[in-house]
Amino acid sequence: MSHPVLEVKNLSVAFGSREGALVAVNDISFHVDRGEVLGLVGESGSGKSVTGLAILGLIDAPGRIAAGSSIRLDGQELVGMPEDELRRLRGRKLAMIFQDPMTTLNPVLRIDTQMIEAVTAHEKVSERAARARAREALQRVGIPSPDERLLAYPHQFSGGMRQRVAIAIALLHRPMLLVADEPTTALDVTIQAQIISEVQDLAAQTGTAMIWVTHDLSVVAGLADRVAVMYAGRVVEQGTVADVLERPLHPYAHGLIGSVPSRNRRGSPLAQIPGMTPSLGRLPPGCAFNPRCPRATEICRGQWPEATIYPGGRTARCYHPHIENEAAA
Amino acid sequence: MTTSEPIVALEEVSKRFVKPLDTAEKIGRIFGANVKEEVVRAVDDVSLRIAEGEVVGLVGESGCGKSTLGRVIAGTMNPSGGAVRYRGAIVEGMNAQDRRRADLAIQMIFQDPMASLNPRMRVSEIIGEAPVVHGLVASRDAETYVAETMQRVGLDPSTRKRYPHQFSGGQRARIGIARALAVKPEVLVCDESTAALDVSIQAQVINLFMRLREELKLTYVFVSHDLGVVEHISDRVAVMYLGRIVELAPTDRLFSGPNHPYTQALLAEVPRLEARKKKFSALKGEIPSPLSPPSGCHFHPRCPFAFERCKVERPALKEIAPGWSSACHLNDKAA
Question: Distance from the CA of B44 to the CA of which of A26, A234, B16, B29 falls in 20 to 30 A?
Fold first, then answer.
């Protein structure tokens, strides 16, 4: 078919600091097809959120997208695009929802003001038509009595409701791509399930592709088509959810999946990854995972392994992958 | 699990928080205005027996009262009704000496170590202060004692002169655990103690909890919204909804065949690693405000099986099988 909705190639994002440049995202490539959900998984500091922000063009100084990076939305290059053009895309073709909707919504403006503004920013419609659109959008995300709720302020909503409003705004213009950065992490399981189910329905209706940034492998398991696992700014493994979660190749992905309680027999010790995630300023030489890796050898301390392509189109960056998992497939 | 005398027993414990009327409202009331004090029943008539050496998980959504109940058990809050017994004696009725012993025996570990560790104290002081003050350790032995305790939780004793901000999240969690262990407790109340940690670090801390349980014969009350963690670590699980325990059962029973409709819904929503392209179904609505909980069974407005009786009569927590109780009228109907 034609090109994917989003194609990221060799993306690097660095932040200048006193100790020199910290490379938060280091030469990553991935793509998202139409209507597809990509799970971007990693622990704190792995660069998953920065990747999301970079796609939206929201990296501010001292951070910058390094030369040679490419982000193409529907074939159109976003890196280096002038800010006013980017602004026309954001909210219309590209949208993002964040973990804490209180930082997305303006606390001193009523919901109707914010939603009508979001409509009229991209389309020339009367305020009345915009209000009707806003009302309909609230209804779609399952907010009861939308007419009253339009007149309310963000603090009058519960956490789950606020996130719904943020989603309603993000989907107002049926964007091609929605980047969701841990949108359900702060919510209870029942509310999380409600939100995910609504986003699933809406994305199916509008054909919106999604990047779901999260640290929660279990959410990705039930929601995503493909998954990319990040560690210390690199994508260490990517592939279909079934491949990566059931037969991980990279020792980090392997360890991460093993440490989820449900994968372990109750009462027995959890499989754990020793040590802790390295700080970006003091990355070990070679593969950044090598000090924690049970399979590390001399070669791993040399330089990062290149991404190797395995059957089924999945990739992993490792000198000693769990290849037995591949053979079993 | 032992069947002898429970180490901690809760008897119809309630905790109410009251927002008193301000002056204007009091004057208003003299003139006949209809203003009332706002009362939240964070914990409403909860009875629970915790046996020595047992791990009891306390689960529920935000606002269900699980943290408040944890604090009542730990003695940092006094119940507004009912009694907490420690080894048979009512904690509130104890003399000062016994009360102190009971308070030391039940320690609490909090979610956010940055908020519960004094940022201006060195780790050696954080861990060493309480045991010296309470006379468990002579001050000249404090240094060695701190080093031992740190080793026990997997911290390097050579870092004892550092401040909390110099540690990573997982290490800070260990400092919080070391501080609690330093006074030689018998019961640990862990309030979302692993919630803020990354998956790989969370696994390390859970393993630490389980090792300590073996080594020190500890009893745990594990408060968490993370059902996967609770399933892994607990012997028994109590599910709370709006201040009440709705189901209490051995862990494997609860997770393999929950009885209460709320537990069923809650477990159905838990994301699982094994699930593929799951259709997330949704339990309707949100947890109601605890200021004005629904009548009868608190869950009835969201319950797919609710009938007339649920709206008027509060279901009692009844035993439906040995060691397994549930508060639902449906169980009477079936019988």
Answer: B29
Alpha helix ranges (H) inside A45-173: 48-55, 83-89, 101-104, 111-120, 127-140, 146-150, 159-170
With an 8 Å Cβ cutoff, are A276 and B168 in contact? yes
Domain count across chain A: 1
| Residue (of A301, A325, A328) closest to A237 by Cα position | A325
Contact by Cβ (8 Å): A13, A28: no
Residues B76-86: tens digit of each pLDDT? 999 999 999 99
Phi, psi of B266 (to 5 degrees): -60, -45
Phi, psi of B289 (to 5 degrees): -65, 130
Range of the domain at A329: 249-329
Q: What is the pLDDT of residues A16-63, one digit of tens each?
A: 877 778 899 999 999 999 889 999 999 888 999 999 999 999 998 888
Q: Cα B47 vs. chain centroid, distance in angstroms?
A: 14
Residue B88 Ramachandran class (φ > 0 left, ψ -120 to 50 alpha, else beta):
left
The per-residue b/e assignment along A163-196, b for 16 or more CB within 10 angstroms, e otherwise, is: bbbbbbbbbbbebbbbbbbbbbebbbbbbbbbbb
CA pair distance B218, B209, nearest whole angstrom: 9
Instruction: Tell me whether B228 touches chain A (CB under 8 Å).
Output: yes
Per-residue pLDDT tens over the stretch A37-47: 999 999 888 99
| Residue of chain B whose alpha carbon sits nearest to that of A142 | B285
A318: in domain: yes
B8 membership: H or E segment, kind and range: strand B8-19
| Every domain range in chain B assigned CATH 3.40.50.300 | 8-241
- Cα distance from A12 to chain B (closest Cα, Å)? 24
| B8-241 under CATH 3.40.50.300, yes or no | yes
Asked whether residue A140 is domain-assigned, the answer is no
Beta carbons of A193 and B269 less than 8 Å apart:
yes
